[in-house]
Specification:
This protein is an alpha/beta fold. It has one domain: NAD(P)-binding Rossmann-like Domain (Rossmann fold, 3-Layer(aba) Sandwich). About 40% of the residues lie in helices and about 15% in strands. The protein contains ten helices and eleven strands. The protein has a four-stranded parallel β-sheet with strand order 3-4-5-9, sandwiched between helices. The longest helix is centred in the first third of the chain and has 21 residues.
């Protein structure tokens, strides 16, 4: 297990931890030596409209370093975790699948472009003989969200009654446990060079908030902000949250993302990987229960 700086999620697990940094190629050899399969999940996630240099260094150049380490250490297979954001989703009335074009061009937020460029590095390496497959999860939620992620932060804000409004949009949401299953299936049986969207179920933020309310009893926000107003106000909200030293949830890039395609197909993964995502309601319930067990939410009285 390659660890950069935070190993809290690996406590009490029987795994070997090796300190490393994908931005420093030489640090990868100790972790990759003798490895049969490498799951490359290391990335910088961002929902802001800036920071291209850092995102490119980690998500693109870092991926190239991982590829080089796989080749140097004779790794049998690389499973590269990309993102649905690496795939073009517009126009939103055209279904998205593995044949959809990549998210290239400055109309896309920096994170999306960096992940698309990372995919291109993997595809180029496959053409040179590397055995690799790519998985593209949609918006991941689920238990064991230690940091938490942006999605976990949103659920916590809803469950604590701290989210004053919602934006009129949504995502295709997928349980982290289903993503892990799909990636392991891809490692085991997918043809070299394959790519799979690991999706789940599209739901609006209002629908997610209702599921949170059903689990916690905390009322959903009453105001649904239209996209045009959210887009206009996003820079102010972002600046205000930064002044408070907090990570913003609503940014111009996240407002773009929330106007997402509702028809994202994971049919290929179903057909080839026996991939069947669980109901979204179960994921929301299990995630909030895990947060409660960790002391981040009040435990529901029986």
């Amino acid at each position: 297990m390659l660890v950069h700086c935070n190993a809290s999620s690996f406590e009490n697990l029987d795994v070997q931890k090796v300190q490393g940094d994908i931005c420093h190629a030489d640090s990868l050899n100790a972790a990759f030596e003798g490895a049969e399969i490498v799951y490359h999940l290391a990335a910088r996630v961002s929902i802001e409209a800036s920071g291209w240099e850092r995102l490119h260094a980690i998500n693109t150049t870092g991926t190239r370093n991982v590829i080089d380490a796989c080749v140097k250490n004779n790794v049998r297979r690389l499973v590269h975790f990309s993102s649905i954001d690496a795939i073009e989703q517009k126009p939103v009335d055209i279904p998205v699948d593995e044949k959809s074009p990549p998210a290239h061009g400055r109309k896309h937020p920096p994170y999306d472009r960096s992940k698309a460029a990372g995919e291109a590095e993997v595809q180029a390496a496959v053409e040179k003989g590397l055995d690799a497959v790519i998985v593209n999860p949609t918006s991941i939620i689920g238990p064991y969200d230690f940091q938490p992620s942006y999605q976990g932060q949103m659920l916590l804000s809803m469950a604590r009654g701290k989210l004053p409004a919602l934006v009129n949009g949504g995502f295709d949401w997928v349980d982290v446990r289903d993503v892990v299953f799909g990636a392991m299936q891809a490692a085991k049986s997918a043809p070299c060079g394959s790519k799979y969207i690991l999706g789940g179920h599209w739901a609006s933020l209002a629908e997610i908030a209702r599921m949170v309310e059903e689990t916690t009893g905390i009322s959903s926000p009453g105001f649904i902000c239209p996209l045009w107003l959210a887009s206009a106000g996003a820079p102010l909200v972002t600046a205000f949250e930064h002044l408070r030293g907090r990570r913003p949830l609503y940014t111009r890039a996240s407002v773009i993302a929330i106007n997402s395609n509702r028809n994202i197909s994971h049919e290929k993964a179903e057909r080839e990987l026996d991939y069947h995502p669980r109901p979204l309601e179960q994921t929301i319930h299990d995630t909030l229960a895990w947060f409660a067990e960790c002391g981040q939410l009040p435990k529901k009285s029986k």
